Amino acid sequence: ITKGTRMGNCCGCLKSSGAAASSSGGGGGNKKSVEMTDGRSNKLSPSLTLSKRMSAPSVEIDHGMARVSGNGLALVGCSIEQDAAYWEWQIERTGGGGGGKLSAHDEDDEDEEENAPKFGVATKKDRRFYQARQALEVDDNTMPAEDGTALMRAIPVRDGDTIGVAVQQSDLPMIQFLLNGEPLHNMAINRFRGSVFPSIYIREGLRAEVVFDEDNFKELSPHARFGPLIAARGII
Questions:
Q1: What pTM value is reported for the model?
Q2: Torsion sign (Cα): 234, 164, 147, 144
Q3: Considering only CA atoms, which of 50, 109, 40 is closest in space to residue 77?
């Protein structure tokens, strides 16, 4: 496995731009072209950022819409369409609160996993989802999947940890997780379907930055076929 392996990946975010169409010089009104973003650019495509619209009101998103803190669910605004993709969440502890591991010796506390952030993917969310979620919490009648984390796993983390997420959709759909480059085989998720988005359930006391640029990855993907998530823009 070599760092920097590029795959022919694209993300399912399509944006329309009439101004771009007029400058392209095309003849047909329905003509569509696809422009790939530069995977080496330090500036993320707008689609490869956290979406405030799809994230809980209880989280804070900053640092170019790539970093999240607070307590709640946050989604990246781009669905995963390619066969295999890899991205990272780079963790910083900001103080007390959740996060799971406080030290290397804090391994077997049952509260550790309960208070740990969750990583993975989620289906599309909107404000109505979060409003319904709040109503369920008031009624104290919440089912496990109703928090939007059915396709996510709780992973206790320490300051400086890196969580890698690798998603494959061909053959056997699977979500794999890595902690500082080490596979967490027992946490893998199999047989998911539908359109999904990179997501995190952040906890108080933590800050997480999502990284899609392979030049900024701290670890290797589990296999060369897992290239970085790359957004595609449709220009009409």
A1: 0.76
A2: positive
A3: 50
